[in-house]
Write a structure and sequence with these properties.
Length: about 625
């Protein structure tokens, strides 16, 4: 009984081994075959008469017009109208193909076209590793997606991930844009593309540049990091990270952003920005600063939020809350600001005028020019559009001018409306109208104090020299007194509403942020580096070579190269086999038939040799 069990186990193991061996063998069907040991030792030469030669092996099927099959080596070479199919998702057409059943390694050349549910790959030559489930080309290829066409010199397809890796001269062509890059990983099912190295996305109205980025080729949205920027016709946006939506012409930038206006020679910086191209508007927050060049001097404006709107010829800057302005010869603060650079108008505004709280006083617009301080509900500064120099300023409602006396005290002028005039960017004349009051330290030419003059009048005209009051003229004076200094109490040396804010004055650019805490920057979500690409060509096991000795390829062909150098199909036709040009063209859909005149040992080949670039 025991011996009987041993015999059964032995027979079962032999049967199982044979089944495994038979599972690895390539099955075939053909209309005609013959042997020629002198020309093809150990091979069957097969030809199509009515039906194409048909090979089957472990889930892959191949059809062709002619074939040389080395049965003992489990290897064949196929010629003419080659079709290869793996399952229901992969099909491939080519002029020539070969397949090693032992290593499940295939090679195709001549008008290769591989189809997947979402994409079609076209190339001159393609390597296909069924064990790895990867395909590879290096002679230039084109992938047609549902939305775009992708081309590159080198490409690799990962079947399980449905992913392409494109290298060298990579280009995506879409009706709305063109992408150029050194390296793109593209996922067919989603249409997602990951860009590595210097890359551009160029559309009709914008160009995106990055050195690492993500783009949804079907949704037309992208995310870019590392030296990323967006160029519009007259505006450039830079930042540590950028988001871009082509559908809505929207872009946002995060951390260390710059929005450069090339048309108006200005720039806005900050740590967050949103750009609406169709509305010609930009909003910037988190320490935003707008800088523009005027008369060879830079003007800086900072607030909690900056908004830039309008076409280049009519661009408007608005700032909201805690506005601070700095120029080498002037500075100011307000609750909000309006700047029309083309018209040469700057307005400092209090959004809630009339309030008298401590908070409201801080919001009131204030402007410093030298030792002169001007306040009011609204301050308007006008520049000469041609020279870009300061021309005039206007203070509306509750105008108050304070000039720090050269020795002690403050000269003060107040009224409802103030107009100041400039020469060479220096304030030289001020007119104040309606219910004006002055408190003025009158001095001799030697700067000796005469007394303190306090006057009421309808209008006052003040002239400055070297940023100091030189002369004061009163019109329709109602009341005025000049008293010696000792006769004027210190409590009476200020007019009602006096508020000297000299400690708030901006003396340098860094004062734009004086007393403010650094903003908390968002942690940028990076884009992972590409996975390290392993060599496509490697051996399965020791002694189990990818290539068969009868392959048209040579061992040196299985090297990763910048450019392919595989010999043409025609030069690899076995010696002694007569070549007949094929009449089949995949685009024409015609069939090639073997006529009675066809020689017994002839094989159909592509109409022209395989072109390798």
């Amino acid at each position: 009984m025991k011996n009987y069990l041993y015999i059964l186990l032995f027979l079962f193991s032999i049967s199982f081994a044979n089944a495994q061996e038979n599972g690895r063998k390539i099955d075939y069907e053909n209309d005609r075959q013959y042997r020629d040991e002198e020309r093809y030792p150990g091979a069957l030469v097969m030809s199509k008469v009515t039906n194409q030669v048909h090979f089957i092996h472990q889930g892959i099927e191949v059809w062709c017009n002619n074939a040389v099959f080395y049965e003992n080596d489990n290897f064949f070479k196929a010629y003419g109208e080659v079709r290869m199919k793996q399952g229901d998702t992969v099909s491939m057409n080519s002029d020539y193909a070969e397949y090693n059943g032992n290593t499940q390694f295939a090679f195709a050349s001549g008008k290769v076209k591989m189809k997947r549910p979402q994409t079609t790959l076209e190339t001159d030559s393609l390597f296909f590793d069924r064990i790895k489930q990867e395909a590879y080309y290096r002679s230039g290829g084109k992938v047609t997606d549902t939305a775009s066409v992708l081309t590159s010199t080198i490409g690799r397809y990962y079947f399980e991930e449905d992913k392409y890796t494109f290298l060298s001269n990579v280009k995506i062509t879409n009706p709305d844009y063109i992408v150029n890059s050194d390296h793109i990983d593209f996922y067919s099912e989603s249409g997602h593309a990951y860009l590595y190295g210097p890359s551009t996305i160029e559309g009709e109205e914008s160009t995106v540049y990055c050195e690492r980025g993500f783009y949804d080729t079907r949704g037309d949205t992208g995310y870019f990091v590392k030296n990323s920027r967006i160029d519009y016709d007259n505006r450039t946006v830079l930042g540590d990270s950028l988001y871009f939506d082509r559908n809505t012409s929207f872009a946002s930038a995060t951390n260390n952003i710059q929005v450069i206006d090339t048309a108006n020679n200005s720039k806005v910086t900050g740590h967050y920005a949103e750009v609406f191209r169709e509305k010609d508007s930009v909003i910037i927050t988190k320490w935003p600063v707008a800088a523009s060049l005027q008369d060879q001097d830079s003007v800086f404006i900072h607030s909690d939020t900056l908004l830039v709107t309008g076409k280049p010829e009519n661009r408007i800057l608005r700032g909201f809350y805690d506005v601070r302005m700095y120029k080498s010869d002037m500075s100011g603060k307000s609750d909000s600001i309006y700047v029309n650079q083309q018209a040469g108008i700057t307005k400092l505004i209090n959004i809630n005028p009339g309030e008298n709280s401590a908070t409201s006083v801080k919001r009131n617009p204030v402007l410093w020019s030298g030792l002169n301080q001007m306040t009011g509900d609204t301050i308007q500064i006008i520049s000469n559009k041609e020279t870009e120099q300061l021309d005039s300023l206007k203070v509306y409602n509750n105008a108050f001018l304070i000039n720090k006396d050269s020795i002690d005290g403050y000269n003060q002028i107040k009224g409802q409306f103030l107009i100041g005039l400039f020469e060479e960017n220096e304030l030289y004349k001020v007119n104040i109208d309606k219910n004006t009051e002055t408190l003025y330290y009158s001095r001799t030419e030697n700067n000796d104090l005469i007394g303190i003059n306090k006057t009421l009048s309808s209008r006052i005209e003040v002239f400055f020299k070297d940023r100091q009051i030189e002369d004061v003229y009163y019109y329709q004076a109602i009341d005025g007194t000049l008293k010696p200094e000792e006769q004027v109490l210190k409590s009476n040396r200020t007019l009602q509403g006096f508020n000297w804010r000299g400690d708030e004055r901006l003396e340098k650019k860094q004062d734009l942020f004086k007393g403010k805490e650094l903003p908390e920057l968002v942690k940028i979500e990076g884009i992972p580096l590409p996975e390290q690409i392993e060599d496509f060509f490697d051996e399965r096991e020791e002694g189990d070579m990818l290539l068969n000795e009868n392959s048209r390829l040579k061992p040196q062909d299985l090297k990763d190269k910048v450019q392919d150098s595989i010999p043409s199909v025609q030069s690899m036709i076995p010696q002694g086999v007569q070549v007949k040009p094929a009449s089949f063209s995949p685009s024409e859909g015609k069939e090639s038939k073997i006529t009675p005149e066809t020689k017994k040992d002839s094989l159909e080949t592509p109409k022209a040799p395989l072109k390798i670039e």
